[in-house]
Amino acid sequence: MKDFKLDNEPKIKTGFQIPENYFEQFSEKVMTKLPNQEQKVISLWDRNKKWIYGAAAVIVLSLAIPLANQLQNTTQEETSEIENYLDYHSSLTSDDIIELLDEEDIAKIEVNNSIDNQTMEDEITENIDIENYITN
Length: 136
Prior knowledge:
Elements: H1 22-33, H2 44-47, H3 49-88, H4 94-100, H5 103-109, H6 117-126, H7 130-135
């Protein structure tokens, strides 16, 4: 086989030719074809604002729920401690407790036992032993 040397062999033409001064006018042609108005730029903050607010809400809720439960438990424990104290210290009478209550506290405790006339009449007619209750 014969040695093949690229430098010595005749060159084959590609068939493509570039017009004269093509690259000198190329950038001007491209710039004229581009739109004149600028594109709207959206920052990363605006793009991800929903996700950031959502993550912040999840974090706030994850911290607030245990705190609310802890506060609720402490108030229940305080209430039970007060009840236990009142149960085991028999030196306090109901009169002593009533003296310590304000009018607002009494208004909260007060129960409304209003019975309308129709209910009262029905109860009297249905109950045979009503005379025993009235006389005793």
